[in-house]
Amino acid sequence: MEENKDKINLESIFKEKIFTVSEFLDFLNNILTSQKFIVQGEIGNKIDDRLTYYTFNLLDKINHNVLKCFVWKSNLKNLNVELKEGMEIEVFGSPKIYTSAYGSTFEFEIDSIYLIGEGLLKEAFEATKRKLEKEGLFSVENKKSIPKFCEKIGLITSKYGKGAKPDFEKNLKNFGFKVYFYDVRVEGILAISQIKDAIYWFNENKPELDILVLIRGGGDWESLQAFNAEEVVRSIAASRIPIICGIGHESDITLTDLAADFRASTPTEVAKILSENWELVNSNILNFENNFVINLKRIFKNIEEKLNFIRKDLIRKINEEIFKKQKNLEYEKTNLNLNFQNYFKEFNILEKEFKQNFRYSFNLLKEKKEAVNYLQKNLNHLVLQWGKQIKKDLAQKEINLVQSSPILKLKQGYTITRDESGKIINKSQKLKIDQIIKTQFYKGQIISKIKKINK
Amino acid sequence: MIEEKFNFTKAYKEIEEINTWFQQEDINLDEALEKYERGMELIKNVKID
Residue A9: in which H helix or E strand, if any? Predict the structure, then answer.
């Protein structure tokens, strides 16, 4: 329907519209640039190398026709070889009418260039390899690990390929894989962008995939060039989903092989690799199951043995302990007996000593008591004696005293003479004539005056 | 509670880990029983018909 409508519109435009030159050229360019073509040819002898672009002629060697080409240098940054005269290439792009004040020229504006010819391809291959190697795009440490069990697979290959897709699907065992297919060209200039897009699409829309499988059947070196393209290598390196590649060739290795997280030699091998772990699952699981049971039995056996050993050891240790305790007890008992004996011995000695000391003390006390009694008796006797003696002495003394009493002497007729001061005069030498003296008698006294003194 | 989606790779890896765990010398019985039960449960889930 849409197509018919467009046709009607175009027809009406052609009939009714009168274009200016510019409008017409723009109109043509709109139609031309909306189409993409691949053209193969040889680069002519004049390559116009400008700051940001090249122009050159693409020659048809058989019919000698020329197609003027224009390409921005930025579109060739992944080509990795210099454009040279005589190079056989495929160009991908759109035709365009270049307009200027000096005239309009028809040219082909190139989006990308695809090299043809083994020598050229090898040169580009080596240059790209060196460049990407330096960036670490092939280094092992940058590779993502391939899951052991892949369930969801993103398959990137051509649905038209004779071998790759059928070989892969035929050899992928029936383990319930979910395969998401993305159809791409695997040869020629379009393959590069389509493979790149496929990788990007899976990463963006199916990030849960376990693996991306990039495969193609065998072919000559030239036919594999998409797998040496820098854009494809960079896409593989940038993919978050691991990529396994199986490009059906044996002798030469492509840059895709180097960049992929795992490289298998063919699509069949990829399928086998993805299936083999699943194939081992059942037998492995059975082994694990048996191992678990065996190991658990082993653990129980070990524990039983340990328990038996512990039981035996415990009994032995308990017996040893009892024996040791008994021995200790006997030793303690003997010690105690000895100590008791010693104590008794000491006690006997002490008792004996005590008795001896007691007896000695008792006797001593008795002796002392007797001595005291004796002394007391003696003392009493002496006191009596002394009393009698004293009495007697006193009586004698009394007699003597009585006998020596001046009163008695006075009675007997003796007198006592005193001077005026009352002092007794027993010598006449100190007396003076006319001195008054007093003479006392037993009864009465006289006062005399001295008349004569006989010295 | 949201039941976590069964992941075959994770389950298989756990079974392998349990199998390795059982190879060691000193094993705690309680832990062994736990691991055994867990291993058997995982095995039941990963068995392919």
Answer: helix A2-16
